[in-house]
Design brief:
The complex is a heterodimer. By secondary structure, chain A is α/β, with parallel strands linked by helices. In chain A, 36% of the residues lie in helices and 23% in strands. Chain A is built from seven helices and ten strands. Classes of the chains: A alpha/beta, B mainly alpha.
């Protein structure tokens, strides 16, 4: 088994991490108390933040030496705070893809990923009419449809209603395993972690 | 057409009586800005009196150095005002703004005086008033553009962060805000052109006509200055924003503002 991310003597803004290894192609849950630096670690993994000292390695390359745009296209961070345009689902897919320099995905592709996240809206449905949980799922489905190599989920359950969340994650994690997408989830949801995690890292 | 009537101090001071009306209305409407009105009037009076003395001296003793110094002072004060209204700018951005205002203002001013009017750029009677209008309006345009740009960045934080996470380039993310700030800065000038001359005569024309210039000459100057102002605002805002926004992100494509 090889490592997707490793850290070495990593510290940033007063947070010091013990040396960590994240295994490739696994569903890893990252848990720990508030303020321990879990979300910060995800941002270090996609180059949104840079370490104060120490190194972060992605597939054995030092992230500081990588082109962060290419990195972010392989390592997708789905942040806790989402953003969607107040227009149709289709518009959102089109705009996000256009920011990536890609043509709009086919309706079949869009529907496939919406279905994966247990969403049953027509593509012309206006996102501003959706609940927070539904918007979160559209957001995840857009990022997932871009088929990253790594999916980083930061507190994905915070906006989802818990009835649905286990079904949704069942689908998402299954899909990721089938397509060899490594997943790292930051979550305080013990039940979710117990049910789905293949690896479990704790940060204090 | 006769030349302008010279005001004596007594005649002139009668205009200040109108402020009594303003003060009375402000008091009636419970507007607590008496201090601002008085401060504004006093500062305006003092500053313009000083400017008057300086200009009188310069016109009586014309020398290229004086003209250059006056224009330089206008540019420096304009830059200070822009930077004071926009304290959020980082050092490199400030340099981009300062250079943009200076170079575009000076270029348009030189074009106007040298090529359109056909006098030496050191002629204070032309360069100083025209320079004041070009530089002053560019300053206003840049200040407005920077404020608009900063506000749109602040109110679109989650959009910007999401798109960065997506792997979009900072350039692609920020450029729409840059272009819309430029548009916002240009609109007032272009809109004022639409109504120009219909009811009120604009300032430059008014001054010229009062001094005895024929209207046919005055309108040519007015049209020319409007186009010069529009161009200078456009160039200086464009350069400020297009060189400036690149200072907002680093080699790691992290937005650092």
């Amino acid at each position: 088994m090889s490592n997707i991310f490793t850290t070495s003597n990593l510290s940033i803004n007063g947070i010091h991490y013990r040396d960590l290894q994240f295994i490739e192609d696994k569903i890893t849950f990252l848990t720990g108390p508030s303020g321990a630096g879990k979300s910060t670690l995800l941002k270090l993994f996609n180059g949104m933040l840079s370490p104060s000292s120490g190194e972060v390695y992605y597939l054995n390359s030092n992230i500081a030496k990588l082109d962060t745009i290419s990195l972010r296209r392989e390592v997708s961070l789905v942040s806790q705070e989402l953003f969607l345009f107040d227009l149709s689902i289709e518009y959102n897919f089109r705009e996000f893809y256009s920011y990536r320099g890609l043509p709009c995905p086919t309706p079949e592709t869009m529907e496939k990923f919406l279905k994966l996240c247990c969403l049953d809206f027509p593509l012309n449905y206006n996102c501003s009419k959706m609940s927070g949980g539904e918007k979160q799922r559209v957001y995840i489905s857009i990022f997932l449809s871009l088929m990253p190599k790594v999916l980083l989920l930061d507190e994905p359950t915070s906006a989802l209603d818990s009835q649905n969340s286990h079904n949704i994650f069942e689908n998402i994690f299954c899909f990721c395993k089938e397509n060899k997408i490594s997943v790292i989830v930051v979550s305080h949801d013990k039940v979710l972690a117990d049910r789905f995690s293949e690896e479990h890292l704790k940060i204090k | 057409m006769s030349s302008i009537i010279q005001l004596n101090i007594l005649q002139f001071s009668l205009i200040y009586l109108l402020l009594i009306i303003v003060l009375a209305i402000m008091k009636r409407a419970k507007i607590n800005q008496t201090k601002l009105l008085l401060l504004g009037t006093v500062r305006m009076t003092v500053q313009l009196v000083l400017a008057g003395f300086v200009l009188t001296y310069i016109f009586a003793n014309p020398h290229p150095v004086f003209t250059i110094a006056y224009i330089a002072a206008m540019v420096i004060f304009s830059i200070i005002r822009i930077l004071n209204s926009n304290k959020w700018l980082n050092k490199s951005f400030k340099i981009a703004v300062s250079l943009s205002l200076t170079l575009s203002g000076v270029f348009i001013l030189a074009y106007f005086t040298l090529i359109v009017v056909g006098v030496s750029v050191f002629n204070p009677q032309y360069t100083i008033p025209i320079g004041g209008m070009i530089i002053g309006n560019s300053m206003t345009g840049i200040t407005l553009a920077l404020k608009t740009f900063n506000e749109s960045l602040a109110s679109n934080k989650s959009r910007i962060e999401s798109l960065l996470n997506l792997g979009a380039t900072p350039k692609r993310i920020l450029l729409p805000y840059v272009n819309s700030a430029l548009e916002t800065a240009l609109l007032p000038t272009m809109n004022s052109m639409l109504g120009m001359g219909i009811i009120a005569l604009p300032g430059l024309m008014t001054g010229q006509i009062l001094s005895g210039t024929s209207p046919s000459t005055a309108i040519l100057y007015q049209i020319a200055i409007m186009i010069a102002i529009t161009t200078s605002v456009c160039i200086s805002v464009f350069c400020s924003l297009h060189f400036g926004y690149k200072t907002l992100y680093n080699k790691q494509n992290q937005i650092i503002s």
